[in-house]
Amino acid sequence: MSREEEIKKRRTFAIISHPDAGKTTITEQLLKFGGAIREAGTVKARKTGNFAKSDWMDIEKERGISVTSSVMQFDYAGKRVNILDTPGHEDFSEDTYRTLMAVDAAVMVIDSAKGIEAQTKKLFQVVKHRNIPVFTFINKLDRDGREPLDLLSELEEVLGIDSVPMNWPIGMGKNFQGLYDFTNDRVEVYQPTDGERFVGLSEVTAGNHTLANNPFYTQAVEDAELLADAGNQFDEEKVISGQLTPVYFGSALTSFGVQTFLESFLEYAPEPHSHKTVDDEEIEPLNPDFSGFVFKIQANMDPRHRDRIAFVRIVSGEFERGMSVNLVRTGKQAKLANVTQFMADSRENVQNAVAGDIIGVYDTGTYQVGDTMTTGKLKKAFEPLPTFTPELFMRVQAKNVMKQKSFHKGIEQLVQEGAIQLYTNFTTGDIMLGAVGQLQFEVFKDRMEREYNADIIMTPMGKKTVRWINPEQLDEKMSSSRNILARDRFDHPLFLFENDFALRWFKDKYPDVELKEEFSV
Ligand code: G4P
């Protein structure tokens, strides 16, 4: 297969969801269809820590870094699929957001009983900003959930994206009969009495199936007719540009509707896209020169080892083992010798990685988040990765006042690398750190101690709502204990509001002051 054909068959995406919506369960199912894991339960076991150590990749065993679950790769229907993990719970960090910079599509998993939850909303906003396609899977149909029509309107109202159902549930919970799959002209039967899962629509319509007289089926057909008249029409271009999300219903736990979803997703999900450089030049995946960018650095949490893995999204060309690349930030050459690839079925299955794929480069401190690596004629850096508005804050100071120098050096470098965000109190000059997830603080503290020999004291400030203020309207008297005035690292003034109540109070008091909820500074 030519390199061009290899690149065109790549489909790289992430699953975005709120914890417990079923991301792990659906990931397992997808891997199973791809033949990538022998039995479902492997990803889950890894998540809960019950995974047999012997099954881990060597690199994880030796260094205690969990990299295999960060990127999962498998083949299905002639496509090479890369799923990038976006950790939730306490692992949630800016890396989670940055991972979304490295994908070409996103799958949004929603719990049918809960609808759109907080974390889904945040992740969706990041994806929306990039205009990449979003495919929605509404999960847990085997349980009683909300009305499907209600869920669709929530997508439009809360997320502001148009939706188009690709199939429609026939009942739910105890009454779940299956899916009315009008796009494939068939019905997918939940618990077929005769063993036939897929039944042609014409057969049901002709009255040859028990479902024909089922009131839930009749209801589904009516709903679908209503949607066909009054709802959005499927439009591939709108899907690809992220304006319209195709919606699939199913039950990941019972592996129902997942394969139908996977096949449709692979039909419409885009192949690797081009990336812009700082000079506004689009680098196409088929460009023969290799290029890529680091979107995440996974620090080793084991204190005996200082090594890390830099995750690189390949933008163009092909990675070859041992190749040398130009690290644009430093202008130096770096040899990509110790590299992990992520074929989930076996370690032996090493093939060259091409545009669209992710490689994990063993790193002893050479790389930073956002770094561009190139070969040949390509010399320019890709556009910088955005920074994300943090929600959690800590006051930080050096434990030992004699070690101010290493303290400041550590902070400067870790902030530059994108590990954490730096703010200073406008009046007192106190240093405050911002993060999107708690784990970022822990990693920061650990790295300050190990890499910069700087012991620190961190005092939690809790959650804050950040708003940038127009510098011309700034008056120090506006700040109080409920809205701390601070500067970001580019010296832009902002307020850290205690909560939304404090924000509303401020807006009432200073109605003319412009406040910006900026996605990037
Ligand atoms: P996450 O990765 O998004 O956090 O979710 P995960 O897949 O771990 O699923 C969260 C819970 O929801 C799990 O139950 C899982 O079994 C359940 N679940 C996932 N998909 C479905 C579905 O289609 N139907 C139903 N009924 N449940 C589903 P748990 O009780 O937390 O774990 P377990 O003890 O069942 O393993």
TrEMBL record:
GO molecular function terms listed in the Swiss-Prot or TrEMBL record: GTP binding; GTPase activity; translation release factor activity, codon nonspecific; translation release factor activity, codon specific
Keyword field: Cytoplasm, GTP-binding, Nucleotide-binding, Protein biosynthesis
Superkingdom, taxonomy of origin: Bacteria
Entry binding sites for GTP: 17-24, 85-89, 139-142
GO biological process, one term: regulation of translational termination
Gene3D superfamilies: P-loop containing nucleotide triphosphate hydrolases, Peptide chain release factor 3, domain III, Translation factors
InterPro entries assigned: EF-G-like_DII, EFG_III/V, G_TR_CS, P-loop_NTPase, PrfC, RF3_C, RF3_dom_3_sf, RF3_GTP-bd
Gene Ontology cellular component annotations, sorted alphabetically: cytosol
Main localization (coarse): cytoplasm
Cell location: Cytoplasm
Positions of the Tr-type G domain: 8-273
Keyword rRNA processing: no
Protein task: Increases the formation of ribosomal termination complexes and stimulates activities of RF-1 and RF-2. It binds guanine nucleotides and has strong preference for UGA stop codons. It may interact directly with the ribosome. The stimulation of RF-1 and RF-2 is significantly reduced by GTP and GDP, but not by GMP.
Recorded family membership: Belongs to the TRAFAC class translation factor GTPase superfamily. Classic translation factor GTPase family. PrfC subfamily.
Name of the protein in its database record: Peptide chain release factor 3
Organism, scientific name: Lactococcus fujiensis JCM 16395
Chain's gene name: prfC
